[in-house]
Amino acid sequence: MESLAAPLWRTVQRENFTRITPLVEFLELSAPLATKLLSTPRFPLNLPRRLALKIAKNTLDDPILRQFVPLEKEALFTEGFSEEPLQDQAFRKTKKILKKYHGRALLVTTGACAMNCRFCFRQNFPYETEQQGFEEEIAYLSSDTSISEVILSGGDPLSLSDRVLATLFSALDLLPHIRRIRFHTRFPVGVPERIDNPFLMLLASSKKQIFFTIHCNHPIELDEDVLGALKQVQRLGIPVLNQSVLLKGVNDTPATLLALSERLIDAGIIPYYLHEHDRVQHTGHFALPASHGKELIAHLQKHLSGFGVPRLVREEPGQLSKTFISTSDRQS
Ligand SMILES: *Cc1c(COP(=O)(O)O)cnc(C)c1O
Ligand code: SF4
Q1: Which ligand 2 atom minimizes the distance to the CA of 154?
Q2: Which residue ranges form the domains of the chain, and what is each CATH number?
Q3: Which tens digit of pLDDT belongs to each residue from 117-146?
Q4: 59 Cα: distance to centroid of ligand 1 (angstroms)
Q5: Nearest CA to ligand 2 atom 6
Q6: What angle do CA 233, 193, 182 make, to 5 degrees?
């Protein structure tokens, strides 16, 4: 039976900061600092209060602020950057399926997220908003038996209600060639309450092997509540992995990335990918020289177990996989 009360995570979501003025006040920013923020960004401000609470007061030099609060630098135009550097439209098989790689179909389940990341590579994606269900997608998946894995992405798949996810799971359960379901989600970092008992029961009910890939860029994102929620997912036999994006001013120092990997592996979460930042227009202030990532990985390799070192990758449209950036040549 469905409860009439709104689930907790919905209530919490309503407390997001979506306007600059109350946020400036909350962060106690001085007038000169406040003028460096962009009050009407093209990609809206959306910052859960629990993340805003982690931001240091009266400074713009903070890894959470940089990820979620629009700076005036977003108004700048960077040569060589574009609206859609990944050319996703060319790989759209249905309104909600992207297929680039063998055996895997990526389902763009929704455009909604728990938070809006300023560097988001899909911030200009023309999301399908009319059709709620996945009939066309299920038809496509059942016709292509080479697909063994469905990646639930978006937006954020945890923005969907359990009811919608349950319908999707039931449809996938009927397709024997689909053996794995992978979540790509950042939701637990903003709203760990989303991982509640009904959701865990839903995960446990699927006949498929589930993988859970979170997106976290800085160790401060991983507090006790977030890790506690993910531990419940791990207890179901679901591997939890993490992908990060390498971002200037957020996680571009050896100490930060080392601390991130250590916090992840202490929680049994595997650092999977460290993505080079995609060249999305108006995000040029996050970019780093290509050599920087290699140097960071070399540092991690010297200090961590092999499974604590993420793989440095870049996405290049038209390639048959992510491009692994070689870090073995220590000279370069
Ligand atoms: C990144 C991506 C995947 C997953 O790639 P893995 O290397 O298996 O993590 C699948 N499909 C699309 C369209 C992607 O962009
Ligand atoms: S959670 Fe992911 S899809 Fe959503 S805004 Fe952030 S990077 Fe983009």
Answers
A1: 3
A2: 8-75 (no CATH), 88-324 (3.20.20.70)
A3: 999 999 988 898 877 789 999 999 999 999
A4: 36
A5: 117
A6: 40
